[in-house]
Here is the input.
Amino acid sequence: MNCIIIEDQMPAQRILKRYIEDVGTLNLIGTYTDALSAMQVINSEKVDVVFLDIHLPKLSGIEFLKTLTNPPQVILTTAFQEYALEGYELNVVDYLLKPFSFQRFVKAVSKISRKDDSPIDKKREEQKTTLEEVYIKDGYEHIRVITDDIFYLKTDSDYTEIHLKNKKLLSSESLRYWEDTLSSNKFMRIHKSYIFNICKILKISGNQVFLEDDIVIPIGRAYKNDFMKRFTSK
Here is the structure.
C-alpha cells in the first residue's frame, strides 16, 4: 500500500520512516512538512494511507482532513491527546499519541483496510490474524514472532528473554509489559520471573510445570493458587 507522511518535525519523520520500512507492507512515496504541499500527490496519485500530524504550519491536520472529499485512510499522530475525539469523528483509522512504540505503530497499521484484496487474500489475512503476531525489538532489529511459537518468557536483569523452539530473543521491554501485551487466554504469569504459554503444558508435578521440549518452569508460591484454579477448571 502506498503511504505518505505529513509531519513538520524531523525527528518524528525519521521515526515514522524507520517504522514504515520495518513493517514492510507499506510503500512510502512522499514526505511533506505541511499539508498543502501534500495536496497535489493525494489528488494525482494512488495514496492508500496518510500519516498525518495535527500541529502543522499553514493548515492543521484536522483542518486539512476536513477539506478532503474522498480522503485516503488516515492515521493521526500528535503529542496532544485532546484531539483524539475530533479525529475519530472524522473516521480516522487510528490515533498515535507521541512518543509511540513500534508495537503501537504496528497495531495501528493492522487496522488499515485493504480495499483491493481478493476474497482469497482476505481469507489469508484472517487466518494470519488468528495466529496473533507481535514484533520483538531484539537489538537493532524488529523481529516478527507468532505468539503460538513462544514457549515462555523470563526476566533477566534489564531484559526479558523470549524463548521459542531452539531460539532465544532478548527484549528490552519488561516482563510486566509482556504480561499486559500477550493474550491472557494463552499466557499466564506463574512466577515473579516467568510467563509461559499454557498451550505448551505437558504435566504439573509439585511446584513445577513441564512444557514441551523438556522445559521445566518453577511455580511461584504467590502464583500457585491462581494457576491451579485455572488449570483444574479446564
Remarks:
- The two ends are 43 Å apart (CA to CA).
- The CA atoms of residues 43 and 70 lie 10 Å apart.
- The first helix runs from residue 10 to 23.
- The mean pLDDT is 84.
